[in-house]
């Protein structure tokens, strides 16, 4: 067995997957053979979920029954709503609240007792988890504003229904489409850290709720999904100080800090999702008659590219896109989780189908064997 350490598992091949293919040099992302550009332009989030979970795009009848099943699973139990309310009262971070509430969902899932690797049960559980995450998040946001949760509506699509539950009014078509596209763009991305974490959990034959809960915890870090919130905090800080964004970045780089939203383990060029989200950010600014957030972002992108040769990742332009949609900044990462739950579940289904415990090893560099001394003699 090779004894070379691959820190961060960079480049290590650990599984086969039929889900997403990434060309990091060409900046291409493909879900089950369909480019992200085609899917973002033509498919809804529900279609993409179906594609990831079932292998093919649905026809109209399949899509209608899939949508119906998803929409019918949106409501969450009062016990979960009580937890969400208590966490909001305790000023919990939204990602932590989501992690706790998703974990609690297993307590009322009708398939909770089934064999953890039962595919049909997992498809039902996966639909329920994915359908309920928006309800949990919107209820959390409203609770911390001192407002009652708004019940989900079955007649709205997944994306539009979330915005409705969050804001209390139906989004217009533009906002609903931008948000749906963002969900499509974030749905899957190979063996990223949170997906891998879900797979490690599933590989012990733990259940789907545990795998998704592990993944939510992993996504929240600032090197992963947490970066979208950090990006907006930088833009806001620069704006509040009426500073030049390039000066902010120059100083951050001089101090050895990382610029959130830049760099990627897999892409050596601009992330194809950042291209699409950048366009969304620009058109939202255009529509509002205020291109400030987009232009600040572009100035940072150009400078970081020239100085460090680093390109934006998916988190960079999602930040100004969500901001211009009026979404609270600390919901950006939970919204990432709302979408990525689809990918996590798809990878976990693959893992259960051809399972082997995931268990790498580390090289021991601690002390040599030594004599044990009882505590009273130490
Ligand atoms: C959805 C997602 O998860 S996308 C990623 C979201 N995360 C971020 O945006 C946080 C900022 N980015 C980063 O920290 C990194 O680019 C990561 C974590 C995404 C990828 O990390 P890795 O592949 O492990 O690259 P690594 O951390 O080894 O960095 C390589 C070099 O680029 C530099 N670098 C990488 N990203 C950045 C950045 N955003 N700002 C400044 N320097 C950076 C590192 O300092 C390092 O330089 P060095 O070799 O001189 O020490
Ligand atoms: O793939 C990764 O390392 C990070 C990730 O989740 C993404 O870019 O969507």
Automatic annotation (TrEMBL):
Question: Residues in the active site?
Answer: 264, 315
Q: Which UniProt keywords apply?
A: Acyltransferase, Transferase, Tricarboxylic acid cycle
Gene Ontology molecular functions: citrate synthase activity
User: In terms of domain of life, where is this protein from?
Assistant: Archaea
**Keyword Ion transport among UniProt keywords:** no
Task: Enumerate the catalysed reactions.
Answer: oxaloacetate + acetyl-CoA + H2O = citrate + CoA + H(+)
- Which InterPro entries is this protein grouped with? 2-MeCitrate/Citrate_synth_II (IPR011278), Cit_synth_Halo_CitZ (IPR054872), Citrate_synth-like_lrg_a-sub (IPR016142), Citrate_synth-like_sm_a-sub (IPR016143), Citrate_synthase (IPR002020), Citrate_synthase_bac-typ (IPR024176), Citrate_synthase_sf (IPR036969)
Enzyme Commission number(s): 2.3.3.16
Q: Does the keyword Transferase apply?
A: yes
**EC class (word):** transferase
Ranges where the record places region Disordered = 103-122
| UniProt biased composition (Basic and acidic residues) | 111-122
Q: According to its UniProt record, what is one Pfam family this protein matches?
A: Citrate_synt
Please give the pathway this protein is involved in.
Carbohydrate metabolism; tricarboxylic acid cycle
Choose any GO biological process term that the UniProt entry carries and state it. tricarboxylic acid cycle
Q: Which family does it belong to?
A: Belongs to the citrate synthase family.
Q: What is this protein called?
A: Citrate synthase
Which species does the entry assign this protein to? Saliphagus infecundisoli
């Amino acid at each position: 067995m090779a004894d070379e350490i691959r820190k961060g598992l960079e480049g290590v091949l650990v599984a086969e997957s039929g889900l997403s293919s990434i060309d990091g040099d060409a900046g291409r992302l493909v879900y089950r053979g369909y480019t992200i550009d085609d899917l973002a332009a033509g498919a809804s989030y529900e279609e993409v979920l179906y594609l990831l979970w079932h292998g093919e795009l649905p026809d109209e009848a399949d899509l209608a029954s899939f949508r119906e099943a998803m929409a019918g699973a949106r409501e969450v139990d009062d016990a979960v709503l009580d937890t969400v309310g208590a966490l909001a009262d305790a000023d919990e971070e939204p990602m932590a609240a989501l992690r706790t509430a998703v974990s609690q969902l297993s307590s009322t899932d009708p398939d909770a007792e089934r064999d953890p690797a039962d595919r049909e049960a997992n498809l039902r559980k996966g639909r329920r988890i994915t359908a309920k995450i928006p309800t949990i998040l919107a209820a959390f946001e409203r609770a911390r504003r001192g407002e009652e949760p708004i019940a989900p509506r079955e007649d709205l699509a997944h994306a539009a229904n979330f915005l409705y539950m969050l804001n209390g009014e139906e989004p217009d078509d533009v906002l609903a489409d931008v948000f749906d596209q963002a969900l499509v763009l974030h749905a899957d991305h190979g063996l990223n850290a949170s997906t891998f974490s879900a797979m490690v959990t599933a590989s012990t034959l733990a259940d789907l709720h545990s795998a998704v809960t592990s993944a939510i915890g992993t996504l929240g870090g600032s090197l992963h999904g947490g970066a979208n919130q950090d990006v907006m905090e930088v833009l806001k800080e620069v704006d509040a100080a009426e500073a030049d964004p390039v000066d902010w970045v120059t100083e951050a780089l001089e101090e050895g800090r990382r610029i959130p939203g830049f760099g990627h383990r897999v892409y050596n060029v601009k992330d194809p999702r950042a291209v699409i989200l950048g366009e969304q950010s620009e058109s939202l600014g255009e529509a509002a008659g205020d291109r400030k957030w987009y232009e600040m972002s572009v100035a940072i992108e150009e400078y970081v590219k020239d100085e460090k040769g680093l390109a934006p990742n998916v988190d960079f332009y999602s930040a100004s896109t969500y901001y211009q949609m009026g979404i609270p900044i600390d919901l950006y990462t939970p919204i990432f989780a709302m979408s990525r739950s689809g990918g996590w579940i798809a990878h976990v289904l693959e893992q259960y189908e051809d399972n082997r415990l995931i268990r790498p090893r580390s090289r021991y560099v601690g002390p040599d064997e030594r004599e044990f001394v009882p505590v009273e003699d130490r």
